[in-house]
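Lab notebook, bench 4. We co-purified these components, and the gel suggests they stay together. Before we commit to crystallization screens, I want a quick structural picture of the whole thing.
Request: model the full complex, all chains together.
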Amino acid sequence: MKVAVRILVGTAAFGLVVGAIYWFISYEAAGTTLLLALGIAPLILAVYVERDRRAAGAGAAPLPEDLPDARPQDTAGEDVGSFPAESVWPIVLAGASVLVLGGVVYGLALLVVGLLVGTVAVMGLMRESRG
Amino acid sequence: MDASTTTPAPAPTPASRAAPAVSWFTTTDHKRIGLLYIVTTFAFFVIGGLLALAMRAELASPGRQFLSQQGYSELFTIHGTTMIFLFVAPFGFGLANYLIPLQIGAPDMAFPRLNALSYWLFLAGGLVIFSGFLSTNGAANAGWTAYAPLSEASRTPGAGMDLWLAGLLLTSASGIMGAVNFLTTILLYRAPGMTMWRLPIFTWNMLVTAVLILMSFPAIAVAFSMLLVDRRFGGDFFNPAGGGSPILYQHLFWFFGHPEVYVMILPFFGVITEIVPVFSRKPLFGYTGFVLATLAIAAYSMSVWAHHMFTTGAVDNPFFSAMSFLIAVPTGVKFFNWIGTMWGGKLTFPTPMLYALAFMGNFLIGGVTGVMVASPPIDFHVHDTYFVVAHFHYTLMGGSVFAIFAAIAFWLPKWTGYRWADRPGRWSALLLFAGFNLTFWPQFVLGLRGMQRRIVDYPASTGWADLNRLSTLGSLVLAAGVLLFVWAVWSSLRRKEPAGDDPWGGYSLEWATSSPPPEHNFETLPPIRSERPAFDLHHPELVPR
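Here is the predicted assembly.
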């Protein structure tokens, strides 16, 4: 995860420095705002990931994927989560999203139906995740 | 071989209960979702290509042939939208879906159901965009950039434009979800020993692409939502009469739009970098430099958007010009990597390598002309002319699309278990290369002679007819090349000649499992001791001890 934090901090530093330079040579507000946003957004992610990494403990052993000489059997028996074979809810939720946006174009009725179908789909996904 | 060990098994999952055809609609398997993306995006490519052929037929001679101004505007709008939002970028998603878990030794993507949702949102978005053709005023016709105030309800009335915005909001959501999935999978699901500095280049490039998507796609989702509010609910975000700013739309659009160019090219830099070393029989020259160059491209790509706005007078042109010049440096590093890899290598030229070489030639021309238009004085001259049309087709079609064809030829044996039909494949590469250059090279000259883009007609007195006819002829050769490529795919599937697990002598981990791979990808996982674990597995005598 150290590499991820470095990439994010590097991007943030680039955005902040370039944003500051742009402001002082142009005094143009829109471009400066977007460049500073380029700095701030990855910084938020970097702080989150770094906090997570430190919560694991400073003395925690590095992960096997970060060790150059780790072997596949080093993670034998480790819980890597469950991978659902199938689910009908993603396609239902996508259909509901079409209805909601169709409602914005064609009227309230579609939007209401879309929201109802979307709610059922989200509940279905939640039930599957717990099961 | 003796070093192979059993891979950590994922938690048991219930087998699919659905009928085989229905199971494609409910699947959460990353490989099937990847194939769904690949087949769907290719279908969109064929449709977008037919729209382009209709436009070229219209422009072959001065005078109106068969299209109205409105019809022509719909065609170029939906052609651009299809190729950018429904083909090139999501094809990268398809490849990434199939390959990332295999290349890093993971059993699946981190969030399989979110992955399925991404695909269905993408397909739904595409269908919603095309449904505009069925609406009263026809499909969206404000160009793929949909600049306000042209795209406001007063100037582009009708549901087609609204459906275009709704469809692209769906595909944007799909892209963001996909990026979250790629990032999480690459960072957290790597096999033991698969350190970040051993990641295959394709996976590295997808990681950087995912970061770019997370940074840029929200901007366009915001811009399209604001435009939808303007159009449907009387908002004035981009309406100058109501105090809004059309320039703000351009900022938001291009803050997304330029990184989107790299979302469309970085995955295919990755593809080419997987292919060139394999057919040069050498490891990649300058792995670390290549990765650092990719990171530099990503950073610069977020800070050059306003070079699309030089002519507005609303941005600092020297700053954005300088940043745009700079981005050529890390891109040039990649060419150095590819040439260094081929230099002194034992080169062979099957279909994927021919497409890779064609990619390099075409992309080089696209890149060099990109440096030209990064200069404001030149940009003022060629802005909104066919010079720019030719430039971005050299990068996106001559670059990304050629890499897509290379990728299909390279990985089809892994997807299907069948050997690639190399003979028609190689002929298709030659035909496509010739057809592509015949189509788009004349457009550079047309642009320099002042032919504007997005016009349905031009007077005979301009002298543009001959070059336009040449370009149209080229588009027919190009179409023939695509047909021959489709024939090569069909031929590969029809002959059913077993490919084996590793028909090309590949380097990355996907070549260490069966073709096609089993449900959770690996029966056994080899030890990972370099960037070339499959090569190490198949040639243990060459592994340094």
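Chain B touches chain A through 78 residues (CB under 8 Å). Worth comparing against the SEC data before the next meeting. The first helix of chain B runs from residue 20 to 26.
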